[in-house]
Amino acid sequence: MKKKVMDLLCCPVCKGPLVLHVDSEEKGEILSGSLSCSHCKVRYAITEGIPDLLPHESA
Ligand SMILES: [Zn+2]
Hints:
Elements: E1 19-26, E2 29-37, E3 42-47, E4 50-51
Antiparallel strand pairs: 1-2, 2-3, 3-4
Zinc ion is lined by residues 11, 13-14, 16, 37, 39-40.
């Protein structure tokens, strides 16, 4: 995913802002890392450039 996509992404649960953590990137594209919502305390993985923003069940 491109970093610019961050502008479009928000937490699927609370619609709040997500914090990006980059593990690896290449040519401005994030290959792996995570997006986290500080409000929900949830992390969403970015794997092979695809952010997994499916809401997670919270216990
Ligand atoms: Zn949230």
